[in-house]
C-alpha cells in the first residue's frame, strides 16, 4: 500500500502529491502503513481515505485510496466517528457490524485525532480489530446453550456444564458452573450453583473434583465414577465428557444420587472390614518375613563373596609378599640365581590379583568395558579350567567348541561372568554330581526361528551351558529371569543371577533362552549377533629389554602416587624417552604452558586439587591440539571418561598394568602419531 500511495493520483481526493504532503500527514501515513492491524486514515475536509494492507485484507476489497471514509469503510457509525474525532476526541466503538464480500462481519474500532504542527485536527486515524470469528463463536455457543437448556430442564438426572478457570493454585485449578438444571439441586443438595466457583462452594474437597474433571478436559476421554460430595453427604454416580472444541475449557457432568444404595453397601462393607484387616496384617507379616529372607539371602551372598575374595586375595598376597621377601634375602646373601624365579612367581600372583580385581569391577559395572570382536573359543580354554576349579571334582566339565566359529562383538569379561554364573547354577542343580557341557556354535535364524527367540533374523553365535541336573518345571520356567526369583532352597541363592545374564545378553543386542525338562536337566543359551569384521587382536607388547633410542621424544607423567610416577618414568627412561613429572593436574598444565616439548601426556584419571585427568587432557589439547593422551587408572571412572567415549589419539590403560604393556602402548601411540 505504500507503493500504491506513492504512485497514486490524488487530484480527485483534493490532496497534493505525496511529495508535497504536510509533515503531519506524512507522519500519520507512516504510522498507518507500519501498523500490523487494519488501520485507516481519513484526512482533510473530504475525509480522503488512506489505509494499509491489513485494512484492505480485512475488507476483502481492492484498495479504496482517496475515497471518502464513509464510502471506503461503510459502517453506520462512520459519520459520527469522524465528527467526534475532528472535535479532538478519542473514540472506542465495540462490536461494529460491516459487510465483507456480501457477508456480515464485526470489528472493534479505536479512532484518534491527528493534529498538525499548530495543534489543529486535520485527520482521524482509525485502528480496527476484526472480531468476526469471536462473534460467530459466541452466537454458536448461545445457540448450543439454548439447546442444552431445553435438555437440562427435561432431564430427571442432575446435569451441569462447568468451565475451567486459572486460579491461585495454578492453571485450570478451579471451575465455575455456567449451566445447571433443576435436578442438580435435587441430586446434589446444593441450590443456585450457576455462577458459583468450585473452591467457593466446597473448598475442602475442591482438589479431588478438579483432578477428576481436569483429566477429562486434558485427555478428552469420558469417565464414569462414583464419589461422595462430602459437603452434603450425598453419594453420587457421575459420568463426564469434554465439550468440544477443547479451547472452550468446558466439561459436562451427568449424575444421580445413589446414597441409599451406598448405605446398603456400607453394611456389607462393615462385615468385610474385620476380615480385610486380618488379611492385611497377614500380608504385612508375610512381607516382613520375605524381606527378612531376602536380606538374609543377600547377606549370605555377600558373606560367600567376601569369604571367597579373602581366601583368593590372601593366597595371592602371600605369593607376592613371599616373593619379595625371598628376593630381598637372596640379594642380601649375594645369591642372584633364584631371583628370576621369585620375580616370575610374584609377577604371576600380581597378574592374577589384577585379573580378579578387573572381574569384580566388571561384575559391579564399575569398570570401563568396551565390546570387541572376539572369537569365543579363544576364551574357553582358561575359562573351562576356572569352571572345573569352581564346581569341584564331583562334576565333569566338557567343552564342545564349534569349528570355524564366527566372531561376535562382545565384552569378554561380561561374557565370562555370564557363563560362570550359568555354570554355578548348573552345579547347584546337581548336588550329587553330574556333567556340565559348555558348547559354542554358529546359528542361522530365519524369520520364524528369530521370532520364537525374540531376535532379528540373521546370523548369531551361540554359547550354551547344559547340565544333567533336576530340571525346571514349565511354570517355573516362565519366571526364571525375574529379578530375585530363585529355584534354589531358602538361603542358597539371591535370585539375581539369571536376570543379570538376561540383561547382559540384551545389552549385547542378543538374547538368552532356557530349555529344561524335569529330571532331564537344563540348557541355557546365549545368542549374540555375528560380527562381520575380523577379530580384534591385541598387539604383542615389546619386551622390556628391547631398548630403543627415543631421545627425541618427551613424555609428561601426571600422577599423585609417587611410586607410580617413579616406575613409569624409570621404565620410559630405560627406553630412552625424556620424562617430566607432575604430581597433580595444575602442575602438569603449568609445564604445558611453559613451552617445553611434550609428545605424549600420561595422566591418572583421579587426581587431587580440583582437576581430574580428563579435564587436564582437555586443557592440554586446547594448548596443544593433537597431543597424544594415555589415561592410566586403577578404578576406571566411566563418567569422567564420558562413559568410554574418548577422542581420537586418547587411550585408556587400567592399573595394575605390566610395564611391558605400558611401554608397548606408548611406543605404538607415538609410532602412529
From TrEMBL:
<keyword id="KW-0418">Kinase</keyword>
<dbReference type="GO" id="GO:0000155">
    <property type="term" value="F:phosphorelay sensor kinase activity"/>
</dbReference>
<dbReference type="Pfam" id="PF00072">
    <property type="entry name" value="Response_reg"/>
</dbReference>
<keyword id="KW-0175">Coiled coil</keyword>
<feature type="domain" description="Histidine kinase">
    <location>
        <begin position="308"/>
        <end position="532"/>
    </location>
</feature>
<dbReference type="InterPro" id="IPR003661">
    <property type="entry name" value="HisK_dim/P_dom"/>
</dbReference>
<dbReference type="Pfam" id="PF08448">
    <property type="entry name" value="PAS_4"/>
</dbReference>
<dbReference type="InterPro" id="IPR013656">
    <property type="entry name" value="PAS_4"/>
</dbReference>
<dbReference type="InterPro" id="IPR011006">
    <property type="entry name" value="CheY-like_superfamily"/>
</dbReference>
<dbReference type="InterPro" id="IPR005467">
    <property type="entry name" value="His_kinase_dom"/>
</dbReference>
<keyword id="KW-0597">Phosphoprotein</keyword>
<keyword id="KW-0808">Transferase</keyword>
<feature type="modified residue" description="4-aspartylphosphate">
    <location>
        <position position="604"/>
    </location>
</feature>
<dbReference type="InterPro" id="IPR001789">
    <property type="entry name" value="Sig_transdc_resp-reg_receiver"/>
</dbReference>
<dbReference type="InterPro" id="IPR036097">
    <property type="entry name" value="HisK_dim/P_sf"/>
</dbReference>
<dbReference type="InterPro" id="IPR003594">
    <property type="entry name" value="HATPase_dom"/>
</dbReference>
<dbReference type="InterPro" id="IPR035965">
    <property type="entry name" value="PAS-like_dom_sf"/>
</dbReference>
<feature type="coiled-coil region">
    <location>
        <begin position="265"/>
        <end position="299"/>
    </location>
</feature>
<dbReference type="Pfam" id="PF00512">
    <property type="entry name" value="HisKA"/>
</dbReference>
<dbReference type="InterPro" id="IPR036890">
    <property type="entry name" value="HATPase_C_sf"/>
</dbReference>
<protein>
    <recommendedName>
        <fullName>histidine kinase</fullName>
        <ecNumber>2.7.13.3</ecNumber>
    </recommendedName>
</protein>
<dbReference type="Pfam" id="PF02518">
    <property type="entry name" value="HATPase_c"/>
</dbReference>
<dbReference type="InterPro" id="IPR004358">
    <property type="entry name" value="Sig_transdc_His_kin-like_C"/>
</dbReference>
<feature type="domain" description="Response regulatory">
    <location>
        <begin position="554"/>
        <end position="670"/>
    </location>
</feature>
Amino acid at each position: 500500500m505504500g507503493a500504491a500511495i506513492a504512485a497514486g493520483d490524488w487530484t480527485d481526493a483534493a490532496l497534493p502529491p505525496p511529495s508535497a504532503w504536510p509533515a503531519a500527514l506524512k507522519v500519520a501515513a507512516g504510522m498507518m502503513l507500519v501498523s500490523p492491524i487494519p488501520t485507516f486514515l481519513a484526512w482533510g475536509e473530504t475525509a480522503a481515505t488512506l489505509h494499509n494492507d491489513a485494512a484492505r485484507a480485512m475488507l476483502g476489497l481492492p484498495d479504496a485510496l482517496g475515497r471518502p471514509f464513509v464510502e471506503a469503510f461503510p459502517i453506520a457509525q462512520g459519520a459520527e466517528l469522524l465528527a467526534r474525532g475532528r472535535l479532538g476526541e478519542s473514540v472506542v466503538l465495540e462490536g461494529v457490524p460491516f459487510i465483507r464480500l456480501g457477508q456480515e462481519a464485526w470489528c472493534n474500532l479505536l479512532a484518534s485525532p491527528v493534529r498538525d504542527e499548530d495543534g489543529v485536527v486535520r485527520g482521524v486515524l482509525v485502528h480496527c480489530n476484526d472480531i468476526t470469528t469471536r462473534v460467530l463463536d459466541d452466537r454458536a455457543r448461545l445457540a448450543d446453550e439454548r439447546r442444552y437448556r431445553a435438555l437440562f430442564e427435561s432431564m430427571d438426572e442432575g446435569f451441569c456444564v462447568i468451565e475451567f478457570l486459572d486460579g491461585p493454585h495454578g492453571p485450570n485449578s478451579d471451575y465455575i458452573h455456567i449451566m445447571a438444571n433443576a435436578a442438580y439441586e435435587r441430586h446434589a443438595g446444593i441450590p443456585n450453583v450457576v455462577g458459583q466457583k468450585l473452591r467457593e462452594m466446597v473448598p475442602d474437597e475442591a482438589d479431588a473434583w478438579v483432578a477428576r474433571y481436569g483429566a477429562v478436559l486434558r485427555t478428552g476421554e469420558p469417565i464414569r465414577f462414583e464419589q461422595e460430595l462430602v459437603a452434603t453427604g450425598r453419594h453420587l454416580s457421575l459420568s463426564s465428557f469434554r465439550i468440544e472444541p477443547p479451547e472452550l475449557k468446558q466439561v459436562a457432568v451427568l449424575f444421580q444420587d445413589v446414597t441409599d444404595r451406598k448405605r446398603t453397601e456400607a453394611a456389607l462393607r462393615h462385615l468385610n472390614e474385620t476380615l480385610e484387616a486380618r488379611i492385611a496384617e497377614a500380608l504385612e507379616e508375610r512381607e516382613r518375613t520375605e524381606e527378612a529372607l531376602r536380606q538374609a539371602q543377600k547377606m549370605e551372598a555377600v558373606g560367600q563373596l567376601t569369604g571367597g575374595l579373602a581366601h583368593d586375595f590372601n593366597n595371592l598376597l602371600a605369593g607376592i609378599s613371599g616373593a619379595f621377601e625371598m628376593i630381598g634375602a637372596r640379594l642380601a646373601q649375594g645369591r642372584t640365581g633364584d631371583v628370576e624365579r621369585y620375580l616370575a612367581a610374584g609377577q604371576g600372583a600380581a597378574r592374577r590379583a589384577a585379573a580378579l580385581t578387573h572381574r569384580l569391577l566388571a561384575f559391579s559395572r564399575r569398570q570401563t568395558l568396551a565390546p570387541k570382536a572376539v572369537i569365543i573359543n579363544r576364551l574357553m580354554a582358561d575359562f573351562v579350567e576356572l569352571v572345573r576349579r569352581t564346581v569341584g571334582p564331583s562334576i565333569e566339565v566338557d567343552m564342545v567348541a564349534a569349528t570355524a566359529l564366527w566372531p561376535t562383538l562382545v565384552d569378554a569379561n561380561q561374557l565370562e561372568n555370564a557363563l560362570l554364573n550359568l555354570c554355578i547354577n548348573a552345579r547347584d542343580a546337581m548336588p550329587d554330581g553330574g556333567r556340565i557341557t559348555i558348547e559354542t556354535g554358529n546359528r542361522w535364524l530365519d524369520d520364524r526361528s528369530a521370532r520364537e527367540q525374540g531376535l532379528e533374523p540373521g546370523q548369531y553365535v551361540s554359547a550354551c551351558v547344559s547340565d544333567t541336573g533336576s530340571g525346571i518345571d514349565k511354570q517355573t520356567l516362565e519366571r526364571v529371569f525375574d529379578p530375585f526369583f530363585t529355584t534354589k532352597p531358602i538361603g542358597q541363592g539371591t535370585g539375581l543371577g539369571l536376570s543379570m545374564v538376561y540383561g547382559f545378553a540384551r545389552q549385547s543386542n542378543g538374547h538368552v533362552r532356557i530349555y529344561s525338562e524335569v529330571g532331564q536337566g537344563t540348557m541355557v543359551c546365549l545368542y549374540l549377533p555375528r560380527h562381520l569384521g575380523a577379530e580384534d587382536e591385541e598387539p604383542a607388547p615389546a619386551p622390556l629389554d628391547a631398548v630403543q633410542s627415543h631421545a627425541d621424544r618427551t613424555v609428561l607423567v601426571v600422577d599423585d602416587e609417587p611410586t607410580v610416577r617413579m616406575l613409569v618414568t624409570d621404565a620410559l627412561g630405560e627406553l630412552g624417552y625424556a620424562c617430566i613429572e607432575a604430581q597433580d593436574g595444575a602442575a602438569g598444565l603449568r609445564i604445558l604452558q611453559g613451552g617445553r616439548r611434550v609428545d605424549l601426556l600420561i595422566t591418572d584419571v583421579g587426581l587431587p586439587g580440583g582437576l581430574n585427568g580428563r579435564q587436564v587432557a582437555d586443557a592440554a589439547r586446547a594448548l596443544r591440539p593433537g597431543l597424544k593422551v594415555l589415561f592410566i587408572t586403577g578404578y576406571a571412572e566411566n563418567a569422567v571418561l564420558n562413559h568410554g567415549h574418548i577422542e581420537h589419539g586418547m587411550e585408556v590403560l587400567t592399573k595394575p598394568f605390566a610395564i611391558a604393556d605400558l611401554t608397548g602402548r606408548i611406543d605404538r601411540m607415538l609410532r602412529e602419531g
